[in-house]
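Let us work through a complete example step by step.
Step 1: write down the sequence.
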Amino acid sequence: MIVATAVCPSPPLLLRELTGGRDVAADLRKACEEAVGGLLAAAPDAIVVLGADERSARGVRGRIPLSAFGGPGERVPAAEALPTSLAVARRLLDDLGARVPVEMGTIAFGADPQETARRGREIAARPGRVGLLVVADAGARRGPRAPGHLDERTFAVDGAVRAALASGDTGALLALDPGLCAELLIGGRSALQAMAHALAGRPAAGPRLLYADDPFGVLYLVALWPGERP
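Step 2: predict the structure and record it as tokens.
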């Protein structure tokens, strides 16, 4: 049973060591900590982390590669480095003192509907009380300085994602078009759709949108969907 779901984005600046004296990600980090704190408050037996990444993988283990992001510390070999989405999740969970088993995995940015459905069903079928942490970014084409430059179409699609997370609308997440999302660099589409499948299309209990802003031309959304699901 999934007892709570949290959604956070994956900018490396959520790792405090990377922000320098002026913590430009302070508000975003606070919202992520609130979401993950709500996940832990649901008293899960285990936490499943699903992050969007270049490839799909299960049972991922590794270290946070701070030096790869320009931070301090020793270089982490590529084979031991967590993908960005999972590194952010690992730090959030560690900072909040998570004391339950954590299973981390990724789903490819371009995963097709069959794969997202399969991953969602796998998560939903896990025994016990499960907390689901999804690490996914929205559109990266929201301005001339955005990673993908400006594409006006992104505002409508991003708006649909934002509204879905605010209202707990899994159907709206499943309706996202993979091809269009790829064009708009909505990297979290696959992870969000796997989440929607995991929750079996049922409305969330008391959904809360905790953050929505695009300080670097990428829309970052933070949400918490608490409550047990029958």
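Step 3: interpret the result. The mean pLDDT is 91.
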